[in-house]
Amino acid sequence: MTKDKSAQNFIALLQLAYSAERAAAYAYRGHWHSVVREDERIRIRQIEDEEWHHRDLVGEMLESLGAHPSRRREIRALVIGRVLGVLCHVLGWLAPMYGAGRLESRNVSEYETAARYARDCGREAFIDCLLIMAEVEWEHEKYFRSRVLIHPLGRRLFLWPAPPSKEMIRESFARESEEGLELAGASC
Ligand SMILES: [Fe+2]
Ligand SMILES: [Fe+2]
Fold it and tell me: Which ligand number lies closest to the CA of residue 104?
């Protein structure tokens, strides 16, 4: 993939992530208000804060690339996030936990992919921050999976595939980068 194409993909993915964080944060705001257990309220509220923080970081990256959030995605995220937040109050305990875990597993790979685009378009300074966000999303997925599994019905459900271990986020990134360098060296 050319450097320009990677840069285009990188900006498109950051725009998507920026708005997705907004939807997630609003949904979690409704979610933590809807649960009764204090430990769950605290943890989901912390997850909401982490999504807002991610959004700030992604917004700074977009700005430094001279790009802007997508207006259309922003409006959509606001509506989706608010609707999901309200639905958490009517769908019971299990469905929001299940839905959140499933979405979080996608977020892990989204930030891993963004780190690869950053590397490929020469924005190495962003890589560590993107991998840290992938690791935080990994913790979110782990939390919601653990919640689903404490529910008798949740244990019988077909769960989304478990992501590889948290350490693999950095290991696979480093391995791929080394392989890429070796290939580039071999073709010289
Ligand atoms: Fe996030
Ligand atoms: Fe998350």
Answer: 2
